[in-house]
Amino acid sequence: MPALSLHDKDWPIWTYGEVVPPAKFVHDEDERRGVAISSLVSGGCIVSGAHVRQSLLFTGVHAHSWVKINRAVILPYAQIHRHARLSNVVVDRGVVIPPGLVVGEDPALDAARFRRSPRGICLITQPMIDKLPS
């Protein structure tokens, strides 16, 4: 068990709890199945034909069809549009990821567009997205 467990009742983590509907997983077709594996998905999230692995999705995140999310922390109310692939990222609150954006597969390209840590984690904010060529 990891040193920090979000389920440890002897050391509770207190936070503001927004009243939202439960997380929703939709679509059940090959290559378009809403799933989350080894992940935490908060209330209000919609995983709509997206594949989420080893990630944390905060309240109200919407991952659209054919999205791949791997080892990511997605802060509240972010939108990840179709065919995006995000690996080793932290996405800021309310960011709108455009369709087809790929982050986490080309270190040089990632470093040119986003803030990238020495260990390869990319921070994505809306101003960074807004600077991307259309």
Which percent band covers the strand fraction? Answer: 35-45%
How would you state the average pLDDT, rounded? 94
Major beta sheet, specifics? Answer: 9 strands, mixed
So what's the overall shape? globular
Task: Please count the beta strands (DSSP E, at least 2 residues each).
Answer: 16
Helix/strand structural class: mainly beta
Low-confidence stretches: none
**What are the secondary-structure elements, in order, as H or E?**
EEEEEEEEEEEEEEHEEH
What does it look like?
The protein has 134 residues and is mainly beta. It has helices at 107-113, 126-130; strands spanning 24-26, 28-29, 32-33, 35-37, 40-41, 46-48, 51-53, 56-57, 62-63, 68-74, 79-80, 85-91, 96-97, 102-103, 115-116, 122-124. The model has no long low-confidence stretch (mean pLDDT 94). The strands form three sheets. Strands 4, 5, 7, 8, 10, 12, 14, 15 and 16 form a nine-stranded mixed beta sheet that branches. It contains two helices and 16 strands. It is globular, with a radius of gyration of 15 Å. The termini are far apart.
